[in-house]
Amino acid sequence: MKIFSAQQIYDADKFTIEKQQISSDVLMEQAATKLFEWIHARLRGTKVQIQLFCGIGNNGGDGMVLARLLHEHGYTIKVHVVNYSDKRSKDFLLNLERLKEVKVWPDFINEDSDLPEISPNDIVVDAIFGIGLNRPPDGWVGNLIQHINASQAFVLSVDVPSGLPMDRSPWNPVHVIEASYVLSFQVPKLVFFLPETGVYVNEWELLDIGLDTEILDRTDATYQLVGRQEILPLYRPRLKFSHKGTYGHSMIIGGSYGKIGAVQLASNACLTTGSGLVTVFVPECGYQSLQSAIPEVMVLTDEDERNISKITLPFVPDVIGIGMGIGTEEKTAKAFGNLLKEMKAPMVIDADGLNILAKNPKMLKDIPKNSILTPHPKELERLLGKWNDDFDKLEKAKAFALQHDVVLVIKGAHTIILYGDKGFVNTTGNPGMATAGSGDVLTGMITGMVAQGYEPLHAAIFGVYLHGLAGDICASQQGYEAVKASEICKMIGRGFMEILSPPEVEDREKG
Ligand SMILES: NC(=O)C1=CN([C@@H]2O[C@H](COP(=O)(O)OP(=O)(O)OC[C@H]3O[C@@H](n4cnc5c(N)ncnc54)[C@H](OP(=O)(O)O)[C@@H]3O)[C@@H](O)[C@H]2O)[C@H](O)CC1
Ligand SMILES: [K+]
């Protein structure tokens, strides 16, 4: 699903109004009716007080229409206009009048007003600012936002949490609504998925407000949200007349004394994801444990007992996954550097492999084209240097991926895969997966997908989705805390099955 910028949303708005020959207030009515229907379906007339805080632009206009619809259906409401500017929008004014016509009189909150009382049992509708926010809210508006956040009431934000800009981090982190739920119009917004801004969005859901499908289809979005719909077409079915050679020979290189488990997890995941053959290359000390832990995996060893010091490959693997538990010793870095020069096929590079690259930037030019790098935020910072905010991070990361012709997988609550000038935002996974070895499993999985012939970008997108899904299945069975990397690995098969035939009620794309 495409993620639009604010400008693209305004363009789609304008196009819809012109093509469907409707006036803008009709579109607003449509949007707010969807809001009302959502609320009404859940509350069914419950006698709870709903306090609506409405700005003076179109986000506030949506709030005005919603207030009228709630009033007409017998709900107890209080409407506050947050009077932060004299530049009231046309459709806000129109709907303010319509609200008065049904005898609802909003109170106007200005700089000098007392803050209204909000009970924890109230429902707050937040329609102060939408996607039009373009500068810091005034101090008094920020205070009102803090007051709402402190109320403990359920806060339902219209379109976006007020105070959250669409293209940067907030100016003041406490002057943003902490939404319990966001009902967002038509398309997801990138800020919902980034660590600094996603924290204001507890849960979100999209409402189809009827923007014209022609413009939605033809708009080229930089970022896409990846759900099952996007994953299914990438799947490469196993063929009846195939053999293990059809699905590639992967090589997993890593480990050092005390960190052989990382290689075990990665190679097991690689195999479980479907790689035809898997050979690992580890320091001598890893031989026994690997041979006895995973009989399906072949083991080659370095001449060094404790660290990788010289990588010699008796065959040319289809893909190499490298870096887990490998350490950053000089001899290891040198062996890795030589391998980079030798290999033509894409590699999947993780953990200390990335740290070695960060310490030796000259090696970057030797990374085989289309390789996949899987940094967590700290490793990414070592590669890119510091960034100002999440948006700056994405720009720097995109430039890095373009410059080195690699697929960059930025791991996080919503892992983002960057390639060329495009980004893919993952929707699966859960906090239980922040656990030792989870990244090793991912590296093995992506390696296994490349081995089977998935293009590197597709291998990364699919692998990340499947990894999150396997983790979600684990968490649904035993809770977040007990999720372990080896358990994620065990659920890879179930993950595939869920992608191919989903459970009846599917809501994985919700926040
Ligand atoms: N297609 C859709 O998705 C539809 C969305 N709708 C709703 O419309 C809003 C966007 O409405 P808009 O009027 O453009 O913007 P806001 O309501 O967010 O803000 C109103 C104006 O406030 C000014 N502004 C910006 N920042 C500040 C600030 N910090 N302090 C004071 N004022 C500020 C700005 O105007 P300026 O000219 O002063 O810069 C804003 O324009 C969208 O989110 C949806 O809720 C439609 O209802 C239906 C279609
Ligand atoms: K809002």
From TrEMBL:
Domain YjeF C-terminal: 227-499
EC number: 4.2.1.136, 5.1.99.6
Amino acids binding K(+): N59, D126, S162
Binding site for (6S)-NADPHX: 58-62, 130-136, 159, 262, 325, 376, 440
Keyword match Nucleotide-binding: yes
Binding site for AMP: K411, G412, A413, H414, T415, G439
Transmembrane segments: none
Subunit comment: Homotetramer.
Function: Bifunctional enzyme that catalyzes the epimerization of the S- and R-forms of NAD(P)HX and the dehydration of the S-form of NAD(P)HX at the expense of ADP, which is converted to AMP. This allows the repair of both epimers of NAD(P)HX, a damaged form of NAD(P)H that is a result of enzymatic or heat-dependent hydration. Catalyzes the epimerization of the S- and R-forms of NAD(P)HX, a damaged form of NAD(P)H that is a result of enzymatic or heat-dependent hydration. This is a prerequisite for the S-specific NAD(P)H-hydrate dehydratase to allow the repair of both epimers of NAD(P)HX.
Listed name of the protein: Bifunctional NAD(P)H-hydrate repair enzyme
Organism from which the protein derives: Flagellimonas iocasae
